[in-house]
Amino acid sequence: MNKEDSTLRVAKSLGLNEKDLERIRGILKREPTLTEIAMFSAQWSEHCGYSSSRYYLKLLPRKGRCEVLIGEDAGGIVWKDLAIIFKIESHNHPSYVEPKQGAATGVGGIIRDIFASGARPIACLNSLRFGPLSEERNRYLLREVVEGIQFYGNCVGVPTVGGEIYFEESYRGNCLVNVMSVGLAKKKELIKAQARGKGNSIMYVGAATGRDGIGGCSVLASQELDKREEKKRPSVQIGDPFTEKCLIEATLRAVQTGYIVGMKDMGAAGLTCASSEMSAQGDSGIEIDLDKVPRREQGMEPWEVMLSESQERMLLCVQRGKEKKIRDLFLEWGLNAVVIGEVKEDGMVRIKDRGRIVAEIPAKALVNAPVYRMPFTKPSYLKEI
């Protein structure tokens, strides 16, 4: 097998097709490295890039009686000087594969999106759909999903204030688990998911990185489930709500210092998504040294570190010279806080490992996934309505 065939085989195994690979080669003007293929596969997945849904999402209304906040990981509205931030997200496939952890990390992920904006999370809600309860599999999913939601919400200290649930035949093959969180902040204290200011530091804060969740955004959000779902269990993240509670308090205290230029949750696609989206939004570049990333597993490859979806982690852009003050805040809560890189002006996401460059990609190419207009047919049951 020649190198081109090998590259295509790897790309396909990560959810990319031949056309995607040709596009990547055109962007880089060379053959991509394994780490670069992995990063593109994550960022161009439906979960991160919204390739098949972005066209329709842009049709939604963007104006109302209140000032509308859009463009960040969580949306919101402004009433007087108060920002009401909210986020709803599905964790369907992970919850089908590993229902308790899938639902729990769905809650943890949206809560992080709330406080990543500088808002304090105050409430959670959920909307659930399962197949008929006459089937044992659906009863099992119901029990475990509810357990995951209450377990994470109770431990992290954010109450679940409402929800809804329905049972219907069409959800027999895959449940629907939508979770929502709401937060409050003063408008002037909101933080953007951006990296700006040449020489400013990129800090990793929170839990250490492991192999859990690797490839989750592509494996679980872009493929159909079948009887082999057991094999996909390693792609489901493992949550620790007690660590997240510490992360909430430390992060909100850090926001109060005024030293945070931008920050983002390391959720789907982990460090890949956080670094590329912060870079693109800040019209800047980011250089990261993977040797400095806190890890709890040995022997991780660069692509594994970049795609890990280990929970309770954040990426911060911190004013140069203020790193120690921010580090001390997180250390008080028993959390990692390490400078792993810095902001550049060239618009590139550059990843180093053991002194060598393993990825060098234009940030905006990573975040601008191809948009597809997928074929569709009108369901016959709509005629009966």
Describe this structure as you would to a colleague:
The protein has helices spanning about 5-15, 20-30, 35-45, 45-50, 55, 90-95, 100-115, 135-155, 215-220, 240-255, 270-280, 300-305, 325-330, 365, and strands at about 65-70, 75-80, 80-90, 120-130, 160-165, 175-185, 200-205, 260-265, 285-290, 315-320, 335-345, 350-355, 355-360. The chain is an alpha+beta fold. The protein has two domains: about 45-55 and about 190-365, PurM-like C-terminal domain (Phosphoribosyl-aminoimidazole Synthetase, Chain A, domain 2), CATH 3.90.650; about 65-190, 60s Ribosomal Protein L30, Chain: A (2-Layer Sandwich). The strands form two sheets. The protein has a seven-stranded mixed beta sheet with strand order 8-10-7-11-9-12-13. A six-stranded mixed beta sheet has the order 1-2-3-6-4-5. Helix 7 (about 100-115) runs parallel beside helix 8.
